[in-house]
Design the sequence.
């Protein structure tokens, strides 16, 4: 039984993580939240108390921390006696936080691949660039490290594992579809840190097709989907972390990621990119000031967390899986619908943050309770999906399925987590 | 007879002014060019020599000058014995350069209204905000100050004066149309200093309608025109300096300015404006750096002077005048067509700079020779148009007319400048 959670990062996702940890502090124990800016942590602590999210009386403490400083992070993990670290800080922090976990024996959870701030959109193999190089180190130290345990990557990986385990004998293609059909009422805004958001789309688009990496330009491949609840939506093929791990772990010949973009997003992105305003390379103004254009764009855009109060509408994220079962072709869509207003009411964040922030807390609970405490490194699809999806059903992210038998919720209540874990490991 | 010219400003227009002064240095005498950046002046001097633009052997000297420093400007006017100053520097310099002219007795010529760097798009009366407040001071000192002597304002004001003098008994409406049908081959670029360019369009649009100021939003009023040479073109109603002086000096009930914009320009402008990237108010990045967004946009955009070598196509700028002559309704379009490639071949600048830079040199010649040396302040429409347009016919900016008798060049050769001046003054 591991206990006590240190959350690193106090953005919109950190806020959700803190609320959800608080809602389960009977299992998770003390909760600590740390970021570069203490005031942001303190605001989250206030929000948790205002919404009375703490299930039982317990510790919830804000800390100032530069998580690039491994020694300081080690010190904080030790002084707070945290046995689980949920890293939802900027992607640049992953390797230093992981190092601190290895040095202290704390379990590590993150939601996105490590990025080098000086490189944009590194080419695949993404997890192979940093995380997987440290797999052996984790195993030697007996440290549990669950990679990419947000929604996508994360829940969509569990959906894929579930499809493999229970719905298919053979999977031919996996299309992960992520559509935000919400409306924040602003001319333009990104739903999370603009620096990270734009960086995702400034390089090449990588997909896994015919068992090999295929490269396209951003906004080159477009596809419309008819989706539950949100209806017909336009998406564009995008590179995304989980394509890499799933291609390694699932043996599926076609794995693609599709993200919904509005016309407005594409127009703004295209203009900014073509003008050079998304560059992370410093330029010099006529007055001699050295400045990174992307950081100026970030500064003029709305703070993503400021969007939440007026956000309406829903998100739809899921896996469209095609293949064969019992000699017959099959197609299933396993998905979740989340609502921006409901998320804000519950935890003070919109649904994008909500879908990203709830799953790592479910992962932390599964580590605390044992089924996911594997004392090694894993991506989500390598772990038993049922206990994870079962927890999420009860934590605000219910799973639904649409297949030949119609559209319905999926429940996993009949099965205790431990049994499911054994079943999946065997299957 | 005034002689010796000091050019202030070494941008694309300054380059044209220097070449054209050199081509007429038998009349104009010594030529001096000054700007904040000495190297830019030196590059222009080199260009003038390379293209052998000097008509006779004479002085052409580069100087470093901060023209906001009136004492230093006075000193330079005196030490160079300049009797005519052509101010084509940034619009923020007008008042300090005018002061230096008043103190030295040198004639003053500019091509655009004064702007306060801290105010964007001041409301009408534009000339009344700064320039005209100093009219009496000029008259007392016997200083000639010709305001707005570029193309628009400038030549279009002379076209309006010519229409009034020779083509109409009564003018009902004056539409000034400025279309650049050229192509620089870049995704996006402004044809002159982006800071000035965008500032023109970030405020309200003012026009003179039914004898009063009318306000619209930018890109609100759109109109297509069928124009000579460049064909059917889309323009948008825009505020422009000359609407103000013409409304005062012409007594015409409708005066509007129309500028051609490509779809690309409008898209880029709309995105940048809505995002707040055209703001001249400093913002602070997450890292604490204070920076003016507009200056960052300027830094990432192509240097307007870099566009010239690859610029193709033509500009069309003119006055569509409607009214009555001899009891019959009449409509004339008085205009000029300029060619980007020809301008570059002659003076190393594209046609936008060319059309703005040639007219103030014609004005300088008319001051040097007498007809425009009025020892007071005037806008171009208050001065005799024929000698000006006659000079321009021979300096690369020929005037054409399209009316009920067809489309043809207008010539003024039959009439010496002095006679024309008297005629216009009488008429």
Sequence:
């Amino acid at each position: 039984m591991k206990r006590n959670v240190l959350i690193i990062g106090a953005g919109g996702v950190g806020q959700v993580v803190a609320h959800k940890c608080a809602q389960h502090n009977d299992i998770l124990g003390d909760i600590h939240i740390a970021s570069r800016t203490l005031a942001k942590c303190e605001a989250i602590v206030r929000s948790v108390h205002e919404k009375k999210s703490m299930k039982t009386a317990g510790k919830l403490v804000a800390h100032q921390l530069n998580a690039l400083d491994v020694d300081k992070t080690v010190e904080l993990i030790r002084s707070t006696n945290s046995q689980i670290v949920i890293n939802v800080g900027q992607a640049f922090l992953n390797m230093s936080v992981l190092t601190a976990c290895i040095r202290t024996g704390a379990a590590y959870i993150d939601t996105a691949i490590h990025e080098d701030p000086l490189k944009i959109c590194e080419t695949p193999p993404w997890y192979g660039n940093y995380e997987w190089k440290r797999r052996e180190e984790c195993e030697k130290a007996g440290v549990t490290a669950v990679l990419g345990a947000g929604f996508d990557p994360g829940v969509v990986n569990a959906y894929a594992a579930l499809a493999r385990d229970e719905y298919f004998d053979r999977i031919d293609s996996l299309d992960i579809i992520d559509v935000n059909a919400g409306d924040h009422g602003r001319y333009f805004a990104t739903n999370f840190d603009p620096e990270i958001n734009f960086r995702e789309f400034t390089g090449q688009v990588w997909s896994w097709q015919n068992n090999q990496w295929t490269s396209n330009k951003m906004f080159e491949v477009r596809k419309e989907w008819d989706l539950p609840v949100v209806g017909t939506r336009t998406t564009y093929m995008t590179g995304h972390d989980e394509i890499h791990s799933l291609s390694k772990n699932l043996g599926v010949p076609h794995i693609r990621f599709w993200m919904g973009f509005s016309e407005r997003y594409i127009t703004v992105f295209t203009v900014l990119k073509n003008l050079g305003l998304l560059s992370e390379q410093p330029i010099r103004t006529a007055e001699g000031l050295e400045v990174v254009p992307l950081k100026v764009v970030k500064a003029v855009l709305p703070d993503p967390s400021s969007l939440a109060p007026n956000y309406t509408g829903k998100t739809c994220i899921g896996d469209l899986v095609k293949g064969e079962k019992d000699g017959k072709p099959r197609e299933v869509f396993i998905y979740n619908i989340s609502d921006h207003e409901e998320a804000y009411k519950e935890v003070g964040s919109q649904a994008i943050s909500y879908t990203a922030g709830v799953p790592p807390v479910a992962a932390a609970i599964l580590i605390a309770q044992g089924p996911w405490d594997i004392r090694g490194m894993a991506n989500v699809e390598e772990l038993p999906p049922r206990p994870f999806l079962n927890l999420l059903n009860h934590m605000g992210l219910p799973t639904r399925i649409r297949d030949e038998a119609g559209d319905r919720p999926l429940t996993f209540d009949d099965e205790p987590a431990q049994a499911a874990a054994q079943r999946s490991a065997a299957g």
